């Protein structure tokens, strides 16, 4: 059997706010939706669905989603996302763009969405980034 991820569905508390956030940060287009949900994607391909059916904030200490990672083609794309996030007042976790681990050539940016859902934008090559991995003994995406 060959399997790929079709899309990821996220519960949000404020659909309009979350839709605007994901559109701005990831340059997603709204493929479908109403006042209860948004189907978001790129080039007509569905990637994320947002469902307004929750209260509170993301609970990182409960079983379930750890984080959602999006791969982009190059470091410049990660840098653009970092600029957008900072303009929105979102401070990246760690020290901005960081490697996936000590000595890793891949890495990215770790942050949370308006509901506290942990997100990552990464690229296979972060050549030119000199920031050390946040934890020399563990994968960066594992503990944030």
Automatic annotation (TrEMBL):
Keyword Secreted belongs to the record: no
Presence of keyword Transmembrane helix: no
Cross-referenced InterPro entries: Glyas_Bleomycin-R_OHBP_Dase, Glyas_Fos-R_dOase_dom, VOC_core
CDD domains: VOC
Domain VOC: from-to ranges: 4-124
Keywords: Lyase
Top-rank lineage group of the source organism: Bacteria
Gene Ontology MF terms in the entry: lyase activity
Pfam families in the record: Glyoxalase (PF00903)
PANTHER family on file: CATECHOL-2,3-DIOXYGENASE
Protein name: Lactoylglutathione lyase
Organism this protein belongs to: Actinoplanes couchii
